[in-house]
Amino acid sequence: MDLSSITPALLLASLMVAATPILLAGIGELVVERAGVLNLGVEGMMITGAICGFAVTIETGSPLMGFVAAAAGGAGLALLFGALTQVALANQVASGLALTLFGLGLSSLLGQDYVGLKPVQTPAFKIPLLSDIPFLGRVLFSHDLMVYFGLGLVAAVWALLKYSRAGLILRAVGENHDAAHALGYKVVRIRILAIMFGGACAGLGGAYISLIRVPQWTEGMTSGAGWIALALVVFASWKPGRVLLGAWLFGGVTVLQLNLQAAGLAIPVEYLSMSPYLITILVLVIMSADKSRAPASLGRIFHASG
Amino acid sequence: MLRLEKRPQPSRVFAYLTPVLAVIITMIAGGMLFAALGKNPVEAIRTIFWDPLFGEFAFYYRPQLLVKGGPLILIAIGLSLGFRAGIWNIGAEGQYIVGALCGAAVALAFYPLEAWYIFPLMILAGALGGMLWAMVPALLKVKFGTNEILVSLMLVYVAENLLAAMALGRMKNPEGHGFPGSRNLKDYPSAFNDEIITGSGMHWGVLTAFLAVIFAYVLLNRHMLGFSIRLTGEAPRAARFSGVNPTRIILFCLGISGLMAGLAGMFEVSGPSGQVSIDFNVGYGFTAIIVAFLGRLHPVGILLAGLLMALTYIGGEIAQGNLGLPSAAIQLFQGMLLFFLLAVDLLTNYRIRFVRREAA
After folding, report:
1. Range of the structural domain that residue B106 is part of
2. Which residues, numbered 193 to 252 in chain A, qualify as contacts with chain B under a Cβ-Cβ cut-off of 8 Å?
3. Does residue B48 lie within any of the structural domains?
4. In a 3-state reduction of DSSP, which class is residue A265?
5. CB contact at 8 A, A6 and A259
6. Is B169 in CB contact (< 8 Å) with chain A?
7. Contacts made by residues B190-193, CB under 8 angstroms, sequence distance 24+
8. Membrane-spanning residues where (chain B) (predicted)?
9. Which tens digits make up the pLDDT trace of A191-208?
10. Can you tell me whether residue B360 is helix, strand or coil?
11. What are the distances in angstroms from CA A108 to CA A101, A218, A219, B169, B251?
């Protein structure tokens, strides 16, 4: 085994890349859950975003259009979930599972003509001056734009939830939908908007995998990233800043095990591939002691009577 | 303007009607999907739902109905018990894989010894393996309050990796010329899960599935534990006040669903599939979730829903061969079914009223 092939700067830089998909999907799901909705369909929306982004990038040659399409695809699928749970008042757990199964089927149908193709490479964006700083420049400031977009989104969501009126209303809806309704807020409309935001974020996260991280299309390529994003929200106790922390932790584990695989550790590859999932379980166990942070109306059905 | 009005009691008529309605709407939407793919929708629907039962080669496809329906029913029955109590085991696929691995491990350990006790031991190992795999989320939920949905699902990916490690490593056939996958249990009479009646498709797993249906029916309708499960799901507070032990319910529901999924996996690997290979599992664990809901979490309903879902698998394969319908289209079709089912389920609990908008 050759551990010297693992360089810290490269490791940390690829950690940022590996963390981005779950970061995007996680921050979207955080907003959804803060509005009191549990959408278990993140995996389905991610994979749909992955293929929408991939197909559009191949057809138009523009990664930007690809990411726009991915967000639209994710949001479109999320709208289905919104219609089911908010209008048809269906069980959220079952609807989320349905969304995932549906999304997996839809994506492999859409993607059958795109297997084996290579998308246009998304250019890395080196921030001038900053990227020249030794070590830090390589780790933090030499990524593609989506990495910065993800970080910016976390900051924006944090500020919006904490300081803006819209954020306050969103939290009110999530904590007590009956009270919010009595105050005159449109609970269903707010929740549907939140759900679509979550879908768009998940779609972006999926497209990040198919366009930048891998970049290629294979069936079921998100391989549980959506579920890890869901776990991330629990890990973060529904706080945006800690989503970032969690995403880096999971990104770190993923990158480390990939590097160990490449370095030829004397453990079969399959056992190393298990590690992100096992770590997720471990983290869930540690974090689930404190349930008090969960939005009070999470997963409950809202029906305005009268 | 449309308004929803909650029914004082769920409508019994619609409880029976909604699955049928959902299947019909799915057929229509599916037809539109097939038309969009450039296939004749009527022919496609007929190929999927009619030909396997009454077509020219029906004699070949009818036994397949049991082969494919058996595992689906067995897994879905287990899941439905938990779903009834609000305990969401969605990692049946993982428990299915581990059950299969444990069953196959026993067989491969005894190879080439021929003895009557090998197959029963395999059944035991499969059941135990699936149950233990499900006990992980159960114990974590009981001890630490960890979300069982996420843990059981994460364990699916762990199980898939474990399967790959076994198929390529320890369980690989030493006489397989380097190909991945274990010895074929079909060539090992003591371990082979053969058809009970030749040509019927009825193997021991199918029989177990039917027994599970009866077991679940008796449990839910005639036994105190079944009543507690239903009570926990429908009125958790009432259940707590009346002294139902939630820990016991969680352990039982997850344990039994893991056990049944493990059994299904073991019967599959020792029968229709024959060997442990990287992709011997075809997602029955996930499709069984659709089956459970389509059957309205009722044992008899699940029996019918499992057979229907098996039909879409078989019909889908025929349509793939005859019409060139992509296999993903069938997966999408099954996903749609669950969607429409959840949507029309609204009619069971709510009445839709047309009302004029009044001045506020």
Report:
1. 66-325
2. 219, 223-224, 227-228, 230-231, 234
3. no
4. coil
5. yes
6. yes
7. B190/B107, B190/B110, B190/B113, B190/B114, B190/B115, B190/B116, B190/B118, B190/B119, B191/B107, B191/B110, B191/B111, B191/B118, B191/B119, B191/B122, B191/B270, B192/B270, B192/B271, B193/B119, B193/B267, B193/B270, B193/B271
8. 12-37, 69-87, 94-111, 117-140, 149-169, 202-220, 249-267, 273-293, 300-316, 328-347
9. 999 999 999 999 999 999
10. coil
11. 11, 8, 6, 30, 36
Same domain, B269 and B334: no
Find the mean pLDDT for residues B280-291. 87
Token readout for A239 is 């706080």
Cα atoms found within 13 Å of the Cα of residue B176, Cβ hemisphere only: 18
Q: Can you tell me the distance from the alpha carbon of B205 to that of A24, in angstroms, rounded to the nearest whole number? A: 43
Of A270-284, B19-33, B35-49, B170-184, where does mean pLDDT reach its minimum?
B170-184
* Residues B168 and B21 occupy one common structural domain: no
Q: A155: how many CB neighbours lie within 10 A of its CB?
A: 14
Within an 8 Å CB–CB cutoff, is residue B22 touching chain A?
no
Among the partner-chain residues B149, B286, B332, the one whose CB lies closest to the CB of A109 is B332
Residue B269 gets which letter from DSSP? Answer: H
Question: Measured between alpha carbons, how far is B279 from B167 in angstroms, rounded to an integer?
Answer: 9
Give B114: exposed, middle or buried? Use CB within 10 Å, 0-12, 13-18, 19+. Answer: exposed
Q: Are residues B178 and B144 in the same domain?
A: yes
Q: Please answer whether residues A49 and A73 qualify as being in contact, where contact means their C-beta atoms are separated by less than 8 angstroms.
A: yes
CA gap A99, B339 in Å, rounded: 8
Q: How far is A135 from chain B (nearest CA, A)?
A: 35
Strand partners, B5: B351
Amino acid letter, B11: S
In Å, what is the CA distance from B153 to each residue of A231, A257, B89?
Answer: 11, 20, 8
The domain over range A3-128+140-287 is classified in CATH as 3.40.50.280: no
The full DSSP string for B278-344 is: TT---SHHHHHHHHHHHTTT-HHHHHHHHHHHHHHHHHHHHHHHHT---HHHHHHHHHHHHHHHHHH
Residue B2 pLDDT > 60, yes or no?
A: yes
In a domain, B272, yes or no: yes
CB within 8 Å: A223 and B157:
yes
- B98 neighbors B130 (Cβ within 8 angstroms): yes
| Partner-chain contact B346 A89, CB within 8 Å | yes
Residue type, B346: L
Mark yes or no for CB contact A88/B343 under 8 Å: yes
- Give domain status of residue B180, yes or no: yes
Distance CA A48, CA A19 (A): 19
Tens of pLDDT along A208-232? Answer: 999 988 888 988 888 889 999 998 9
DSSP structural state of residue B359:
P
Residue B192 shares a structural domain with residue B293: yes
B24 and B137 assigned to the same domain: no
Is residue B46 one of the residues assigned to a domain? no
CB–CB contacts below 8 A, A to B: 131
- Across the interface, of B157, B289, B331, the residue whose CB is closest to A97 is B289
pLDDT category of residue A306 using cuts at 50, 70 and 90: very low
For chain B, the domain total comes to: 2
- Closest Cβ opposite residue B332 in set A105, A228, A285: A105
- Per the CB < 8 Å rule, is A284 touching B150? yes
CB atoms within 10 A of CB A237: 15
List, in order, residues 6 or more apart from B303 with CB less than 8 Å away. B73, B210, B213, B295
Taking 70 as the threshold, does the pLDDT of residue A292 lie above it?
A: no
The domain spans of chain A are 3-128+140-287
Cβ contact A104–B342 (<8 Å): no
**Other CB atoms closer than 10 Å to residue B261's CB: what's the count?**
37
